[in-house]
Amino acid sequence: MEIDTKEKNEIRILSVKGSIDADTASEFDQSLEKHISGGRDKIILDLSRLEYISSAGLRVIMKAAKKMEITGGEMVIVGLRGVVQEVFKVSGFYSLFNIYDSEEEAVLAT
Amino acid sequence: MTTLSQVNFPATRNHLHQFIDSVVGSAKEQAFDDQKIGLIRLAVEEALVNIFKYAYPDAVGDVALRCLLDDRERFVIEIEDSGAPFNVLTVSEPILAVPLSERKIGGLGIHLIRQFTDEVEYRRDGGKNLLRLIVEKAA
Q: Comparing C-alpha atoms, which of B80, B88, B78, B71 is closest to residue B26?
């Protein structure tokens, strides 16, 4: 699993590549924590290069989103496809997050 | 019934990938497409992670994982451990349709197992938990 970071219009964009499973979830957690506690209140989670996510990864995303909601921040999701999209759907995550097809759309909306 | 693969490892997270590699290898041989293989991988990971967390609270034990084709040509993953009795079928579904602040952080694993397999069977026998995840092949 790799996480690339960039910034656009004061929005932190985290692009996750590979798989988030029970093994890599804590690394993902640490990275998200770092960006949130660093005062980031707008985060785009770009999952277009993510091939797989299990409940361990969903747990990390939910934890981060709850934290941001409390501080008035926002985390949006970009690029769901394949297995990851299916997992988000059956877990009810489509109603928890604003989900966009592209980074451009997400940047405009956030 | 045809046994496709069988592995046995300690019930610890650092062995997760070895279990998964075995299942994915057998699923590939059965010509499941990539999407289906990903969902099978997920169901197996969720089942294993529960066992890693709860089966052996006081010591490390083993998990046996077997892939087979049953008499109806269904792809079956059998997961057996000698740990504390735990029937995954008795865990209730998480409540999904609530706002973010009310969503519980855990509880999704078992939901995903049910969603991505066609049948789940559990049996407690001779001090072992035996979990069977059944996936129908496409018509």
A: B78
